[in-house]
Amino acid sequence: MCEKPNKVWHCPWDFTMVDDIAPAFRTILEENYLTSSSRFEETQENRILWWKQRTNLDRRLDKFLRNVEDLWFGSWKCLLLGEWLNCKNFDSVLKNLVNDLRSKCKLDINEGLLKIILGGSKYVCEGKTLLSLLCSKKDCYIAKGGYCDEAKSGIFLNAANKLMSLEVASELINEALNALEVDDSVNREPVILVLDSEVQMLPWENLPILRNQEVYRMPSISSISAVLEKGNNHKEQVGRNLVPFPSIDPLDAFYLLNPAGDLKYTQTVFENYFRDQNLE
């Protein structure tokens, strides 16, 4: 049987908007602490029970993060991604799409935002979804010339009151998506998150869309600028005489396994492996 922990879990923050709109996160953290700090007799039954609790917590956290991504961001989650680094034909596809939307659909396109959304096309899925981002009636929209309105049966109405077919724009976007030469090996620029204190406790880096993305946190925009400026100054001073990053020889290393003596099963599993590596 598990024993109750000696210490009571203390939430690292007092109260934020997260506790109002997503109270499940605080509950998950508290239960994580309780299962991690509880002591139990080393029996097969207790180990099975403990792993069952931990697996359940993992599933709940995964569901929570997927809900945050889907309900808070929706199709706009693609804005969290960095730009592609090695997509061969991205620039040409983007340029052609912008020209076609402007000439054939008479839309005044925000090219910068379209570039970001098209870069996340793998997660937007199809042209109709992307099109809904292009012409949102809310403040976030790319096309200044027209808006989507279900009451108009799939018709754009531009600033000059000229009717435009929704299908034309959708076809153009689908053609652009199909023309992109993208696979899972395409790398992206790193993403830097500057988070408000109300939401910084959430594990944003573990959102499904960011799990394969290089992500960093910084406290403010000014701190990012300061680091970039310092890095540029350092490069100017060093010039081409850059000091190589020291390499690490895995055969010339040490290991520390189960120092607290509370992970006996883990020690049993890995001890022989480390010993076979001739590490000391």
Automatic annotation (TrEMBL):
Q: Which domain of life is it from?
A: Eukaryota
Task: Output the Gene Ontology cellular-component terms.
Answer: cytoplasm; mitotic spindle; nucleus
- One Gene Ontology molecular-function label: cysteine-type endopeptidase activity
Fetch the Pfam families from UniProt: Separin_C (PF03568)
Q: Name one GO biological process term.
A: proteolysis
Name of this protein: Separase-like
Q: Which organism is it from?
A: Trifolium medium
